[in-house]
TrEMBL record:
Classification via InterPro entries: Cro/C1-type_HTH, Lambda_DNA-bd_dom_sf
SUPFAM superfamilies associated with the record: lambda repressor-like DNA-binding domains (SSF47413)
Residue span(s) of domain HTH cro/C1-type: 22-78
Protein name: Helix-turn-helix domain-containing protein
UniProt cross-references to Pfam families, sorted A to Z: HTH_3
MF terms in GO: DNA binding
């Protein structure tokens, strides 16, 4: 017996940072803890959400996947804080500015070689011979070319920061897919993204550009 004294609750180190990111994403989404819990299946109580956010419990894989969908962030971001394309709206402005400065220097050094072979490269794309990572890169690089380097995306990010997140997505994708021993929900999330979203978008963009450059 503890004589009526309160026993300090134990926080789990691996859950604290994940909880902080759940809270940030929830606030960004404009949801209360009750509202977030109600969108899960089965619904989670306000107390359960509070335990996640404060690091007393780590959501299981099923809950993480549900949270990812409801909060519109990747499980990669929730678990380790790495920013993928899906998480651009969560990137702090200071970090975004640092990435922009680094990438601007790289782009300025290589800008002179970008345009000369673009038309020929697009006309010779063979979809069946491309890896998934190449398709991810090309799809988003084409978006960048169509949008222009001075335009902000709807989530407020600039193309420079967008490309930085793209590179992180590619690295994470390769790490997961090339590890045959891993069979996680995060890996399934990337596979579903490839099968349901990327292939359709990539084919449509390549078709559009082929029409443009074949004139």
């Amino acid at each position: 017996m503890n004589g009526g004294e309160n026993v300090a609750r134990k926080k789990y180190p691996e859950a604290v940072e994940t909880g902080q990111r759940i809270r940030l994403a929830r606030i960004e989404k404009g949801l209360s803890m009750e509202q977030l819990g109600g969108k899960l299946s089965p619904p989670a109580s306000k107390g359960a959400v509070s335990n996640w956010e404060n690091g007393y419990n780590l959501p299981n894989n099923t809950r993480l996947k549900q949270l990812s969908k409801v909060l519109d962030v990747s499980t990669t971001y929730l678990l380790n804080g790495s920013y993928t394309l899906r998480d651009m709206h969560m990137m702090p402005e200071i970090k975004r500015n640092v990435l922009e400065k680094q990438l601007k220097k790289t782009i300025e050094k290589n800008n002179s070689i970008i345009d000369s072979n673009l038309s020929n490269a697009i006309n010779n794309i063979e979809e069946d011979n491309l890896t998934v990572s190449q398709k991810i890169y090309l799809t988003n690089a084409i978006k960048y070319l169509k949008t222009g380097s001075r335009i902000e995306f709807p989530d407020g990010s600039t193309p420079i920061a967008y490309l930085a997140a793209l590179l992180n997505t590619l690295l994470r994708y390769d790490s997961l897919i090339n590890d045959s021993e891993k069979n996680t929900d995060e890996k399934k999330e990337y596979q579903e993204f490839y099968e349901n979203d990327l292939l359709k978008e990539f084919t449509a963009l390549v078709t559009e550009l082929n029409k443009h450059y074949s004139k």
